[in-house]
Design goal:
With 220 residues, the protein is an alpha+beta fold. The chain has five helices and six strands; from the N terminus they run H-H-H-E-H-E-E-H-E-E-E.
C-alpha cells in the first residue's frame, strides 16, 4: 500500500519550539513601566486642570474686586450727604394712606394743591403693577406739610385719607412695632413644660370617665 502524500495549504507547519516561543509570558518589568507612564500622564493632566481652575478663580476675584471698587466702595462723606438729602426730602413729604386703587397721581396732586406746590406724587405698586393703596406727596415748601396734615380724614373717591409725616428710613435699622392688646383674645397663658412620659393619653388635664364594671348574669 502506497503512502499518500498530504498537501499543506498556506505554507509550512511551524515547529513546536517556535510556537512555544510565541506564547511566552509577558515581562512584568515592561508592564510596570507602562503603568508608571500612564500614571505620570494622568498626574500631568490633573495638574494642568488644577492650574486652569486656579487661573479662572484668580480672574474672577480680580473682576469682583474691580466691580466692588467701581460700584460698592463709596466715600463716607458721600454716604452722609446722600442720607442728609433723603432726610431733607422726607421733611417736605407726607404719607397718604387708604388711597383708592383707581386713583391717579394727578387726582392726588389736585387734592393737595391747596396746601402748596406739589413737586412729586408717588403711588407705590406691587410687582404686578397694581397699586398698594398708599402714596407719598412731596412738596416744594416745608411749610406745606402742616397744611397737608390738616387734610387727614378728608375724602377722595369716597374714602377717608390717612395723612401722616413721612418717616426717614435708616439703612440697617428695622423699626419694631409691638403688638397691641386684643381684648377679645386676652393674654395667652403658657402651659407648664411637661416631659412626654407625663402627658395624659386622654388630653391635657383630663381623666378617664368612671364606668361601672359589668356583672356576668347568664340567666337574665
Amino acid at each position: 500500500m502506497e503512502e499518500e502524500e498530504h498537501e499543506v495549504y498556506g505554507g509550512e507547519i511551524p515547529d513546536v519550539g517556535e510556537m512555544d516561543g510565541d506564547m511566552e509570558a509577558p515581562n512584568p518589568d515592561m508592564e510596570m513601566a507602562a503603568a508608571d507612564e500612564d500614571a505620570a500622564k494622568e498626574l500631568d493632566e490633573v495638574k494642568k486642570r488644577l492650574k486652569e481652575m486656579e487661573d479662572e478663580a484668580a480672574a474672577l476675584r480680580e473682576m469682583q474686586a474691580k466691580v466692588e471698587k467701581e460700584m460698592g466702595a463709596q466715600d463716607p462723606a458721600a454716604i452722609a450727604a446722600n442720607q442728609a438729602g433723603k432726610e431733607e426730602v422726607d421733611a417736605r413729604s407726607v404719607f397718604v394712606g387708604n388711597v383708592d386703587y383707581a386713583c391717579t397721581p394727578e387726582e392726588v396732586q389736585q387734592h393737595f394743591q391747596s396746601c402748596g406746590t406739589v413737586h412729586r406724587v408717588t403711588i407705590l405698586t406691587d410687582k404686578f403693577g397694581q397699586p398698594k393703596g398708599f402714596a407719598y406727596v412731596e412738596f416744594v415748601e416745608v411749610e406745606a406739610i402742616q397744611d397737608a396734615l390738616q387734610l387727614n380724614e378728608s375724602e377722595l373717591h369716597g374714602r377717608q385719607l390717612k395723612v401722616l409725616p413721612k418717616r426717614t428710613n435708616v439703612p440697617g435699622l428695622k423699626q419694631f412695632r409691638g403688638r397691641r392688646f386684643n381684648p377679645y383674645m386676652g393674654y395667652r397663658i403658657r402651659r407648664p413644660f411637661m416631659s412626654p412620659y407625663m402627658y395624659s393619653p386622654y388630653g391635657y388635664g383630663k381623666a378617664p370617665r368612671f364606668r361601672r364594671p359589668m356583672r356576668y348574669m347568664p340567666y337574665q
